[in-house]
Specification:
heteropentamer; B: 268 residues; alpha/beta; Rossmann fold; six-stranded mixed β-sheet; four-stranded antiparallel β-sheet; 9 helices; 38% helix; C: 278 residues; mainly alpha; MetI-like fold; 2 domains; globular; disordered N terminus; binds adenosine-5'-triphosphate; binds magnesium ion
Chain lengths: 318, 268, 278, 278, 268
């Protein structure tokens, strides 16, 4: 293993407290980055696309974010590469308000409904679009409302301003617990992802500009090692261990909610950090239908991810 | 004559904002009674407290001590029976001349057209017809004073409080205005408190001239009844021997006082 | 010679306009050069097309604007945003003026409420957006509410101070002329505070738009802010910039209207002494 | 009898404070009652604990504040936010005053730049945050920049108008007394516009905090806005409210300092006529 | 006497902001020349354009036509050789009395202590010692005028432009100030343009009295050389027969003019 080129690493993440990025938090809390000789600063942003922008703009080095952005960015001439995986399923669920649930049989029944997504154009929107397309609906058959990833989403559904919602945890779990929604599509589990997307799909990753990875392989290896260790730790730890490890502030409002969500998404957390080729191909199939700028033929898929570092990490941390 | 306006044993002390323990007593223990239809002039050295007294009479300033009675009632708040012509400029800069003149009518709910008609008539009376559309900053100093005069007189108040109303006018215009005022006053015997620095003006207009001492703690030091016959023409009456006699008498009293006050201020 | 005088004034105005257009053109050129990957070696950014990623490219931006209007797709969104903005502007201004007048004129109320007003002004509205959504729903109302919280305080603070700056003599005069408290308000306080109000309005115009767009950005189904948000999801900076430019144009339009009202209402103000040169 | 007078004034102030405390207590009680699931049947919300979901519970909020200070964990974050706020406030104020003076005094520059200033003011800062991050990094500077864009315009518009309201006669007098343009600035324009500046400062204090917090909220690794963002992720409204309250307290403190400066600098202003009652 | 200040064929037309085609010509074709050490008084009916002329002489107002020459040079911008005492209140409200008096010294870079010392001396000269710490709004109207006087005179300007400086003062204080002014003027023969409504004051102070016609389009209609002996005491000189003779002569000329102007305004 080579020397570390850059000890101070700035990681940008959109919504650090979310379970989507649990391995990052665990690696930080357990000091795995330090173990690799890295000094990591984690800046939290209001959304994944903001975090990405910080890296493109040069104020941060590495993004902790959704894999699909590496595809979204290629048409812009930005080559980003994912080098370790945190989640192997998008962890987005679609739920329909309980009041409307009895009329719902299949995706095509969503026609004409108001559906909340975290933000128009985001992953929640993409999964939703893909989901309705399986029912033969066009994007214009539903009206999409941006409701964010937090309290707004919950109120919007509870107050009946939207009929269905596509969102991540903890919003979906909270709504589920309160009995406000019936889940109709669930990519928080591997099986659900298979059903909705027709295959696995990489979710939370660490990715960085190709250039950065080429110039700092030692640093990237260190980051990879830490995340892989965290992935493995999560799969071996008990829920109590997790509760003890995450920052107290994550648990302040509702420990039970956190635990409940954790148990739900545990399966979606990558066990070894490896990005599967099948997953990448799913992404390439799904994204162009959503973002027309991404043309499947022009994408250099091999540039979007590498398992080179993960392999070494897995060799090191069995 | 029943007193229409009575200030009794009035004192005014201004607080200094920086040091509240230190005040400046402008007027002390002053009594000024104005009867029905009486024209009283107040003269006195500059800075003695004339404006302060007028503010008290108008209800704009609460005296530190003493009582103010208007038409037999103790004054609380604004003196609604009085019209006040201020020493400093008090026109509303956002109203043009005629709008300023009719402001009081408007406040009283007089119909717009009637108000404007009366306003125009008053502008003519003060020699400003044709200037109705100008804003205050487009008028000369003397013109602004005349607008203020019309603004007050158009309301026909029972008590007139006038603070150096004519000092910015040339002698001739001034005499025209003085005669205008006397005519109005004699028509329905208003009560007037008239502040001036021009002793001749004071004597030729008034029933009584009150002389104030130099400040601080100013108070009346002379009260002269002017027994010149009415009606008077302000230009002609100045030439009568009795006028000159009164003038000399008051003049002497004042001169002493002013020199005393001046010396006092210089000593401070 | 009134003709030559008119000419001179017109010349001056023409020169000014020319200047402004030139400056605009210059800015566009700089923007174009800096964001065009092929024209210049990258200056600030490591990679050539990174600037375009953040600032968009002017040609693309205008193409976007053109398409919006050609296809008519923008009208619906623009309409929503403009309605939100105007409502926020009107409601914010009126409530700012009314409450400003009220507190300025009743010292007790002002003394009691003062810390609360200041506290509310210090609250970050963006974070409180969920509460607005609860109260006002996801439609126009919540955006208007957000805009109002921005506009209100600007107007309020200025009206409050403006009223306290009324000349005491003019005030005393109006009272002596028999003005009732209501009339004092209407004929003295309001006109006297007018220039304060207008100063705040010039500021509010911009913030009303900001309120509407940010509100849409945080949760909506329509409006220019929605378009911007959607474009951001795809990293389509050209659309983002096009949306911002579009709104800016309308902000300038609204500001011009405010300026017009100002010039009409403030004729009485002494400007520097004005003589004619013939 | 100066004693009784002092007493009366003191009584008045005491009564006022009592009023304010009472109002505060009342608000807290209302907050408590409405958010406590057990005390009342749900009024506005369908479910009992939904109010708490949005507004937090006062007891919890204060417990949170207590723990922050007891454990000392807050200091680091608070410090960052306060530094950002103060810097934004200072830089925004100074640049607003300077540019406001400049444009008010040079009619050509103002005519040319006017539309640009208004355009920039109409831009939604929240959407432009990524650009700030590019230019100023993820540290303190970008939050300061965001705050400055809020404070600057408030101060700018008021200074601009304030300068144009200078009494023409006082100005002419100073010029006749031989004041150079610089001296006019320092001895006439600035003091004359002072009450305008202060009106805008009372508004800016709040917005400087808003700028800092929103900046942190949009992307940061430290600061009270960061804490709030973290808490929002898990609907921990108590922490959100605690953060907002904490900052509000500091905003009031800063405003008090501004008020102090105002009272010192504005002694010359005629207030309503003031006599002593003995 | 070489002319120190010369307004030649000056006209001033004020634009109306609403309707730029319609202007008001206050002064037309007026020539006013003031020699070295000459004391010229300007009298005329209210609103005729005296202040306007003074503004032109001060360089504050560009005339619509005509030239202004100061010490042989054509005037461009502010007249730096002149001190100007305004008709309206022009004190800086944010400076207290003594700070207002020394403002000009401060602008000229005089050391603080020296300035304050000279300021105190001047306050004493205008009878205001002890009032140095007051702000303008805490002074009476006459006091503010005296502060303005001190503010101007402390700079010892070559040309004095004074617009009704003493009209807010009582007669006695006024005479004290007049004598003060004459003393100062005779010491180093300043050139003075003095506007007043008091013809006696004009005659007793001046070398020459210029009478303006009523507005609009006002212009000089009389120019009287006052050949009373110097030095004069303003109080005593009024009683001399030659004074009374001059007074009567000018008075007649003015009276006609004022009545004409008044009638003109009323006709408009
Ligand atoms: N607000 C105030 N604070 C402190 N002192 C004041 C205030 N107003 C007036 N004074 C003082 O009270 C005294 C009387 O003032 P006032 O204006 O009544 O004089 P006046 O007789 O009208 O003089 P003038 O003839 O010059 O107008 C003056 O010494 C003045 O300085
Ligand atoms: N800014 C202005 N716009 C229009 N007209 C004006 C303006 N300033 C002055 N005038 C007019 O010019 C004329 C002369 O005014 P000026 O102030 O010179 O008179 P004045 O001789 O000083 O009178 P007074 O003795 O009353 O002070 C007046 O009729 C006045 O209305
Ligand atoms: Mg007075
Ligand atoms: Mg004049």
């Amino acid at each position: 293993q080579g020397a570390i080129e850059k000890k101070e690493v700035h990681v940008a993440v959109g919504g650090k407290a979310s379970l989507y990025y649990l391995p990052l938090t665990i690696a930080e809390q357990l000091g795995y980055f330090k173990d690799e000789g890295l000094s990591v600063t984690i800046s939290d942003f209001s959304g994944g696309s903001q975090a990405l922008r910080a890296v493109v703009g040069g104020s941060a080095d590495v993004v902790s974010g959704a894999y699909e952005h590496t595809l979204n960015m290629q048409p812009k001439g930005q080559y980003l590469q994912c080098f370790v995986q945190q989640g192997r399923a998008p962890q987005i669920a679609i739920g329909i308000a309980t009041a409307k649930a009895k009329d719902y049989k299949s995706p095509k029944d969503l026609k004409g409904l108001k559906v909340g997504v975290s933000a128009p154009g985001s992953s929640t929107h993409m999964i939703l679009n893909h989901f309705i397309s399986t029912g033969g609906l066009k994007p214009s058959d539903i009206s999409v409302i941006g409701v964010g990833l937090g309290a707004t989403a919950i109120t919007a559904l509870k107050s009946g301003q939207i009929d269905a919602v596509s969102n991540t945890d903890p919003v979906m779990t909270k709504l589920e617990q309160d009995g406000d929604v019936k889940i109709i599509a669930d990519t928080r589990t591997l099986r659900g992802t298979e059903q909705v997307l027709g295959g696995p799909m990489p979710a939370g990753c660490l990715y960085a500009p190709v250039d950065f990875i080429r110039k700092n392989p030692g640093t990237v290896q260190g980051l990879t090692n830490a995340i892989v260790r965290a992935d493995k730790w999560i799969h071996s730890a008990s829920p109590q261990d997790v509760l003890r490890t995450v920052p107290e502030s994550y648990l302040l409002s509702d420990k039970a909610l956190y635990l409940f969500s954790f148990n739900k998404v545990k399966e979606a957390i990558s066990p070894d950090g490896v990005i599967s080729d099948a997953g990448a191909r799913t992404a390439l199939k799904v994204i162009p239908t959503f973002n027309p700028e991404v043309k499947a033929k022009e994408i250099k898929l091999e540039l979007t991810y590498t398992n080179e570092f993960v392999k070494k990490a897995n060799a090191k941390y069995k | 004559m029943a007193p229409v306006l009575a200030l009794e044993r009035v004192s005014c002390t201004f607080l200094s904002r920086e040091d509240p323990s230190e005040g400046y007593t402008a007027v002390r223990d002053t009594t000024l009674v104005v009867g029905e239809g009486e024209f009283v002039s107040v003269v006195g050295p500059t800075g003695c407290g004339k404006t302060t007294l007028l503010n008290v009479a108008a209800g704009l300033l609460k005296p530190s001590a003493g009582t103010v009675t208007v038409l037999g009632r103790s004054l609380d708040g604004i003196n609604t029976h009085a019209g006040y012509m201020f020493q400093t400029e008090a026109l509303m800069p956002w109203r043009n001349t005629v709008q300023n003149v009719v402001a009081g009518l408007e406040f009283r709910g007089v119909a717009r057209e009637e108000a404007l008609e009366r306003g125009d008539a008053w502008l003519k009376r003060v020699g400003l017809s044709g200037f109705g559309k100008r804003y205050p900053h487009q008028l000369s100093g003397g013109m602004r004073k005349r607008v203020a005069l019309a603004q007050m007189l158009i309301l026909d108040p029972r008590i007139l409080l006038m603070d150096e109303p004519f000092s910015a006018l040339d002698v001739q215009t001034r005499q025209l205005m003085e005669n205008e005022l006397l005519e109005l006053w004699s028509a329905d015997r208003k009560s007037v408190v008239f502040i001036t620095h021009d002793l001749e003006e004071a004597i030729s207009l008034s029933d009584r001239v009150v002389v104030l001492s130099a400040g601080p703690a100013s108070h009346p030091i002379g009260d002269y009844t002017i027994d010149l016959p009415r009606p008077r023409d302000v230009a002609e009456i100045r030439l009568t021997p009795h006028f000159i006699e009164i003038h000399t008498k008051i003049w002497r009293a004042m001169k002493e006082e002013v020199l005393k006050g001046y010396a006092q201020q210089q000593r401070q | 010679m009134p003709n030559s005088k008119g000419n001179r004034a017109r010349n001056g105005r023409l020169r000014l306009r020319a200047f402004q257009v030139l400056l605009l053109a210059l800015l566009l050129v700089i923007w174009h050069v800096l964001t065009s990957p092929t024209l210049l070696p990258p200056i600030y950014f490591a990679e050539a097309n990174q600037a375009a990623f953040f600032f968009g490219e002017p040609v693309e931006v205008f193409a976007r604007l053109w398409r919006w209007f050609a296809s008519g797709e923008i009208y619906e969104h623009l309409w929503v945003t403009l309605v939100e903005t105007l409502l926020a502007f009107l409601i914010g201004t009126v409530s700012g003026v009314v409450i400003g007048l009220w507190l300025a004129l009743s010292p007790t109320a002002s003394a009691v409420l003062d810390p609360y007003i200041k506290a509310v002004n210090a609250m970050p509205r963006v974070i409180l957006a969920p509460i607005f959504f609860v109260w006002f729903g996801l439609g126009i109302a919540s955006k208007v509410a957000l805009g109002v919280t921005l506009v209100f305080f600007i107007v309020f603070f200025n009206v409050y101070q403006g009223v306290r700056e009324v000349s005491p003599v003019v005030l005393a005069n109006a009272r002596m002329l028999g003005a009732s408290p209501r009339q004092l308000l209407r004929h003295v306080y309001v006109p006297s505070a007018m220039s304060w109000v207008f100063a705040s309005l010039h500021n509010s115009v911009g913030l009303a738009f900001v309120g509407a767009v940010v509100g849409e950005y945080l949760g909506s189904a329509k409006g220019v802010g929605y378009l911007i948000h959607q474009a951001e999801g795809f990293f389509d900076m050209n659309t983002v910039v096009a949306g911002i430019l579009l709104l800016t144009a309308f902000a300038l339009l609204l500001d011009w209207a405010v300026g017009l009202a100002e010039r009409r209402l403030m004729v009485w103000q002494p400007r520097s002494i004005e003589t004619e040169r013939t």
